[in-house]
Amino acid sequence: MTARQRRMLLVGLMVIGVGTAAAFALNAFQENLLYFYSPSDVSAGKAPADRTFRVGGMVTEGSFQRPAGSMEATFILTDFAHNVKVRYSGVLPDLFREGQGIVARGKLAPGGDFVAEEVLAKHDENYMPPDVADTLKKQHQKEAGGQ
Amino acid sequence: MNLSEFLHMGGYAPYVWSCYGLTAIVLVGMEWAGRRQLQLAQEKARRRAQMGAQMAVAENPS
Amino acid sequence: MWLWFYQLASPPHAYRLLGLWRPWLLWPAIALMVIGVYGGLVMAPADYQQKDAFRIIYVHVPSASLSLMVYVMMAVAAAIGLIWRMKLAHAVAASCAPLGAWFTVLALVTGSIWGKPMWGTWWEWDPRLTSELILLFLYLGYMALRASFDDIQRADRASAILAIVGVVNVPIVKYSVEWWNSLHQGPSISVTSKSAIAGSMVWPLLVLLLAFVLYFGAILCNRVRGEILLRERNTAWLAESSLKS
Question: Which residues form a coiled coil (chain A) (predicted)?
Answer without folding.
Answer: none
